[in-house]
Amino acid sequence: MKDLKPPRAVVTGASSGIGAATVRRLRAEGWDVVAVARRTYRLAALARETGAEAFRADLTVADDVARLAAHVRATGGLTALVNNAGGALGLDRVEDGDLDGWRAMFELNVLGTLRTTQALLPILREHGGGDVLVVTSTAAHAPYEGGAGYVGAKHAERMLTTTLRLELVGEPIRVIEIAPGNVATDEFALVRFHGDAERAAKVYQGYQPLVAEDIADAITWALTRPEHVNIDLMIVRPRAQASNTSIARTGV
Ligand code: 8X3
Known about the structure:
8 helices, binds 2-hydroxyethylsulfonic acid, alpha/beta
């Protein structure tokens, strides 16, 4: 049995979007939360607002993740790791793909999740088990034109997740994948398009996209099922989106 009361989560990518919404929701449900991101000023504001603990770390840096694990172990342990940090860079055809962008996407989405999971999994075991939840994407399930770098990284992250579930069977650890479709957040599309706000806004025009709270809701629901229930995979899209490339838009 998981032994922490209240339960305690580490949420990565906590400074904005789905991560910040998840911190708020878990705190509202009575969880202790360690909110992890690179930007300390945003983390500090979130910590003040929610009572979460802020921890600055860059998940592409091994020493930062080791410090995070040491901190979590020394300050009470862990019930759930929410691997949310990630992102897309560019929307280029394969023939035009930017190698540095692809490398950065693999570093954060794949190796960041791997490194963080490797570092924190032993702490889940020390506390009678727990959850490894990975926020992938519908890009982890099908390609779209211009998406290959992100689609490839998210497919790899998904395979890390499904393989881990196979490897841990029999242990009291659940491995959960939440795969969001189009979620209108402040930063996902803006970062993808290198700060081009007009192009970013177009991604969400003419239909009702998901909001970060919708995914925080799914994450919280999956984490709070009875211990024998493992939500292997939840794909969550806006009603107006039938696939990565089929979106019913009006007025555009
Ligand atoms: C976000 C969905 O379609 O931009 O992960 O890849 S998409």
